[in-house]
């Protein structure tokens, strides 16, 4: 997968950076550097194209996921992160997903897999309208920062609240905050930084 790896301080965690629809692996590197400039960065471009835009998985329409493709792409991305951990010399449990929108959604898919061992994640503008009645993943011991949108044209408020519940029901320690719309404003980036480095 197309990616950028920026080495940080030896032994520091690694941000796994996942852009939104139409983004590239360059978009969120400034955010990652601002959150903690000592961490390494693995920023990955989505492998799927939709109308010329990069994404991490296919969909049939806004909020209508191609579940088969989501399943395949989530595994593909997780495998790539594991391979990158070997290549660049870090542990997958030290990897911290940072996602915006589509990047957040694929991060949720990975975190809900039994073999995933992420301990922290920062997810901005997530949406996960997937039936999880069969998913029993234990996320106690994981810490998650969620930024959700009031009046978000893409993610209804009840769907944002559902993302909070997905993590809480599985025992994760969840900090969530609200912004206006489908956005990632500077003040929420600052809040995420304070949460991460507290």
From TrEMBL:
Gene3D superfamilies: alpha/beta hydrolase. GO terms for molecular function: hydrolase activity. It comes from the Bacteria. Pfam families: Abhydrolase_2. InterPro entries: AB_hydrolase_fold (IPR029058), PLipase/COase/thioEstase (IPR003140). Coiled coil: none annotated. Residues 5-197 form the Phospholipase/carboxylesterase/thioesterase domain. This is Phospholipase/carboxylesterase. It comes from Salinicoccus kekensis.
